[in-house]
Amino acid sequence: MVTGRILSVFGKREEPHRIYTPTATIGIRGTGIYVESDEEKSYVCTCYGHTRISANANPDVSKDIISEHHDEPVYVLPGGSDR
Predict the structure, then answer these.
(1) How far apart are CA 6 and CA 62, in angstroms?
(2) What's the pLDDT at 81?
(3) With 0-12 CB in 10 A as exposed, 13-18 as middle and 19+ as buried, what is 59?
(4) What is the 3-state secondary structure (H, E, C) of the chain?
(5) Nearest CA to 7 among 40, 38, 41, 47?
(6) Cα Rg of the chain (Å, integer)
(7) CA separation for the pair 74, 41 (Å, rounded)
(8) Which residues in the chain come in under a pLDDT of 70?
(9) What is the spatial distance between Cα 57 and Cα 69, in angstroms, rounded to a whole number?
(10) What is the C-alpha to C-alpha distance for residues 20 and 79, in angstroms, rounded to an integer?
């Protein structure tokens, strides 16, 4: 996903679903998720469920999010940081 927005629900499965943006890779493990992306940043809101968000510029920068209701939105910036 280079630019745009997606709101979707993914079921659990053996291999996690993945969404790739210019700044982030989001591993989805059965969840509702909203993602906005452009060349400068990605906004990821785990609506409910479990995601693992990794910065493409530095895959060691990652965050596991387990959410019940829009608890922890994340911005991923090109340098690999989140805010």
Answers:
(1) 21
(2) 52
(3) exposed
(4) CCCEEEEEEECCCCCCEEEECCCEEEEEEEEEEEEEECCCCEEEEEEEEEEEEEECCCCCCEEEEEECCCCCCEEECCCCCEC
(5) 47
(6) 11
(7) 10
(8) 80-83
(9) 28
(10) 16
What residue type is 80 in one-letter code?
Answer: G
The region, left, alpha or beta by phi > 0 then psi within -120 to 50, assigned to residue 47 is: alpha
- Classify burial at 64, counting beta carbons within 10 Å of its beta carbon; exposed 0-12, middle 13-18, buried 19 or more: exposed
Scan for tokens 């895959």, then name that residue.
59
Q: Dmax of the chain from CA atoms? A: 32
- Determine the pLDDT at residue 34: 93
